[in-house]
Amino acid sequence: MKSKDIKKDSIKAWILASRPKTLSGAAVPVMIGLALAYKDSTFYEGEPFSWVAAVLCILFAWVMQIDANFINDFFDYAKGTDDTSTRLGPRRACAQGWISVDKMKHAVAITTCIACLIGLPLIMYGGMEMVLIGILCVVFCFLYTTHLSYVGMGDLLVIVFFGIIPVCVPYYIQLHTCSSFIFLMSLACGMVVDTLLIVNNFRDRDTDKTVGKTTLVVKIGEKASLQLYLALGWGACVMGLAYFTHGYFLASLMPVVYLVLHHYTYLRIKRINRGKALNQCLGETARNILIYGMMVTIGILLS
């Protein structure tokens, strides 16, 4: 799609700016947390599964993801990171002129407020501690793009905010409890989602060095980054064997489908190594994450 085909501040421009393909990744950890809560709710008397709370959790995750995308678009453009002449990744709305800078700034404020409004009713299900969780999500949503991703903290934030929090919190909201097993499975989910950031930063490692963005990939180098990408997927599936010990036999086996695809994508990344062709691997990794989430969720529900 050519930039000239997109009318400035049009609906199409806003859809592209929201990066709809990222929404599946945001939903995966919530799906896993809710699936575990749904199955475990049969063991906790007086704690029926709330579908309203479940829908609110998913909506909150989606809106926060869109908010994060808008924040990333705006601040990367303001910092000069999104250089249209050197950028290897998918084009960004502000850099391409699809969305005016002022309107993107307003969109960030609006989506942040919408996310807060969606999350507010969760206090009735999870207690006042949901306020703290919401504040952390909003604050680190801004800190990720403005500072932490530039100092190699992005991967840690992904594991926390795309693994631990979106798996453990929906579970806690439903059952008012959590466990070391749920935490372990949330960590595994975060590791899988982090593979997307690894391949994204692997593609951008040369341009990131130029603009002073010291991602984990830049810090540890090309070879170690490839090994980390592979290890995250394998490690998550090995950790997932704990599902078997808790009665979720299929949830421990079905992610093998993900693992095969993950290994294949790793080999493609290793072979391509540099350039815009790595965007294909980025898309494959996003697909793999969705498949992981579906396999684990279906495995939990059918076990």
Rg from alpha-carbon coordinates: 19 Å
Poorly predicted regions are: none
So how many helices? 16
How does the helix and strand content classify structurally? mainly alpha
Q: Between the first and last Cα atoms, what is the distance in angstroms?
A: 44 Å
Largest sheet: none
Helix content: over 70%
Name the shape in a single word: globular
Q: Which keywords apply here?
A:
303 residues; 16 helices; mainly alpha
General description of the model:
The protein has 303 residues and is mostly helical. Helix content is 75%, strand content 0%. The chain is built from 16 helices and no strands. Helix 2 (23-40) runs antiparallel to helix 3 (51-79) and helix 8 runs antiparallel to helix 9 (180-203). The radius of gyration is 19 Å and the shape is globular. 45% of the residues are buried.
How are the secondary structure elements laid out?
Elements lengths: L10 H8 L4 H18 L10 H29 L13 H4 L4 H19 L3 H4 L2 H18 L7 H22 L4 H24 L1 H7 L4 H5 L1 H18 L2 H4 L3 H5 L2 H17 L5 H25 L1
Please give a quick description of this structure.
The chain is built from 16 helices and no strands.
